[in-house]
Prior knowledge:
Blueprint: H1 2-15, H2 17-45, E1 57-64, E2 70-72, H3 77-86, E3 90-106, E4 113-123, H4 125-130, E5 135-138, E6 148-152, H5 153-160, E7 169-172, E8 175-183, E9 196-199, H6 203-206, E10 225-231, H7 237-251, H8 256-259, E11 260-266, H9 282-309, H10 315-323, H11 328-364, H12 376-402, H13 407-411, H14 422-454, E12 464-468, H15 474-485, E13 490-496, E14 507-508, E15 510-512, E16 523-527, H16 532-536, E17 540-543, E18 554-558, H17 559-566, E19 577-580, E20 583-591, E21 606-609, E22 617-622, H18 627-641, E23 650-651, H19 652-658, H20 661-695, H21 697-705, H22 710-744, H23 755-781, H24 785-789
Parallel strand pairs: 4-9, 6-8, 16-21, 18-20
Antiparallel strand pairs: 1-2, 1-10, 1-11, 3-4, 3-7, 3-10, 5-8, 6-9, 7-8, 12-22, 12-23, 13-22, 14-16, 15-19, 17-20, 18-21, 19-20
Helix pairs in contact: 1-11, 2-9, 2-11, 2-12, 2-20, 3-7, 9-12, 9-14, 9-20, 11-12, 14-20, 14-22, 14-23, 15-18, 20-23, 22-23
Amino acid sequence: xxxxxxxxxxxxxxxxxxxxxxxxxxxxxxxxxxxxxxxxxxxxxxxxxxxxxxxxxxxxxxxxxxxxxxxxxxxxxxxxxxxxxxxxxxxxxxxxxxxxxxxxxxxxxxxxxxxxxxxxxxxxxxxxxxxxxxxxxxxxxxxxxxxxxxxxxxxxxxxxxxxxxxxxxxxxxxxxxxxxxxxxxxxxxxxxxxxxxxxxxxxxxxxxxxxxxxxxxxxxxxxxxxxxxxxxxxxxxxxxxxxxxxxxxxxxxxxxxxxxxxxxxxxxxxxxxxxxxxxxxxxxxxxxxxxxxxxxxxxxxxxxxxxxxxxxxxxxxxxxxxxxxxxxxxxxxxxxxxxxxxxxxxxxxxxxxxxxxxxxxxxxxxxxxxxxxxxxxxxxxxxxxxxxxxxxxxxxxxxxxxxxxxxxxxxxxxxxxxxxxxxxxxxxxxxxxxxxxxxxxxxxxxxxxxxxxxxxxxxxxxxxxxxxxxxxxxxxxxxxxxxxxxxxxxxxxxxxxxxxxxxxxxxxxxxxxxxxxxxxxxxxxxxxxxxxxxxxxxxxxxxxxxxxxxxxxxxxxxxxxxxxxxxxxxxxxxxxxxxxxxxxxxxxxxxxxxxxxxxxxxxxxxxxxxxxxxxxxxxxxxxxxxxxxxxxxxxxxxxxxxxxxxxxxxxxxxxxxxxxxxxxxxxxxxxxxxxxxxxxxxxxxxxxxxxxxxxxxxxxxxxxxxxxxxxxxxxxxxxxxxxxxxxxxxxxxxxxxxxxxxxxxxxxxxxxxxxxxxxxxxxxxxxxxxxxxxxxxxxxxxxxxxxxxxxx
Length: 792
């Protein structure tokens, strides 16, 4: 019996090639899209879950309680050390200083020099006891000794090729560092990544900017400080947080706890909590999962509509089976078998398509964070679940409906042409509602991301590049200054830390004009010299610019901060003393508001100040001439003056675009989903109009004989479909407006949702539907009526 089911099912599938192609292609597109979304979701959900006892690992973070609470993923070594030595509930502890930059000389050779930007960390063996890494060579124990390093496998290959790196030396800041271990490049699903791990005991010799107070001061808080502890049980979290309060009371300065709240962040929440540096919100993952389900639903509804609408060719077959003794159950199983075969072919095609799409997805969608298959077994289970759902979804309803066809109706030559009833109309409306909603969402997200990347943020970022120079001597700075002044393409330049708009967390609480209390809102820092304003186009609205090398630090503040300090009388701040953190200086001027962070957040109080130790970048504004020539000249001057450095640069525009990486990925994923939905819906409309034209063949022939034109017949066939698309628009418009209006609330600076966005999406949907159904309707309308009526 099973063999008979399979044989007949295959015959029916191969006989109706056109509709089989529509079904399989639509399902394959939907399933492949779901597989890509599944891989993205499962990859993000797996971040740092592979470590032993990952559920009991917590990160030390803190909140700064001012008028507006600020959050930071960092901590202080003093807090970490107090917990390690004085908290009995702490089972393990590990500390790492991340995101450090160095010039690495391999074996001391000048030609073998590499620049490592934000990829070097300081730690000891405790880090590798807590976190799981696969060791290729060596062990972590030697990392407790000074001047040792552990490399990732790809970094070891970059430095030494295929040679064994163990025992080889690296020159870091003129200090010899020995390679004592190599760890695997993977797993990739972790937020705790570094390419080089240096001995923690080498911190002060290699980074003299750190002083001994780093180890004793609870206030030495920095986002590059990664402090983790392991508890015996995750339920002890609250108890340990209370112990932190007790230790802070004991070790911190008076009133410290009035401003700071120290907390524990579970390791499995670190990837998702945007307050503490999380890169993906779980709400985005669930939204993508819902979109994947909707796309699958669109494809399943296509199959159901096409199968039910195409029953005219199967009604006599079904009646004949019943006359010859076939039961409803057997006919039901026949349709389920056909659905299973179609689904299996579609799933196999989808898996192949997804595998082919993966490299392109990683290149286009996930450029900075390529996704990887976390578990092949889980992927197989997911594909199997999709196959089951698709088979049931596409098979149950058509099988139940068609297996109950009345023998009497068929034998009376009533072919049971099922009309486009409410259920099937609802499916078409649902498909187009989802498609149009996704189109509207795509347009709004694209516009918002474009707005974020290109809107005026209070400074000029066009043709400005930043060049890392590290800490240069006074003579080297003077030589660079003279060289740059003699380069015609260079309009202006500044020694600074970062561009005005960046991911920098530098800032401090402030105390103004000898007021007895500190201000309730902290200020962000922009660090540069007197040329910072001219290089980035910051406009001074009152007072004067800062001057370089002054014994008493000078500050420029933005309008928002001036208003905070003096209300409407902003000019009164000029010449007044200001304490920013531990820096005592004087305000010399006010600049027009500019964003020190992304446009996701509102403009904050900002201070421009000079700090030569932190001015590790050179910002250069170029003219509109040939950029390549200017960059070549810059590279030559750089290498002549800084022979121990490696020349590299980055356009400020690109750095700003990185601030909106999460929104950009979201935009691309929604765009891809929208495109898939449009294609699948169009396939469904194409199939339905084809079947409708087939069912109404004789009607069309009679209309033509009676004088109906091709246009009139085409409109008769397409009228119902276009009304359904229009009805879908009436549902999609308010739904998508509600969803996107809520999404835009996450941004301090956002676009307005204009009426034309919905009109544009609606018109596009109508045009796509019109051209899709017109193709078949015109073909049917131009057919020879003699052939249509020959059977009458």
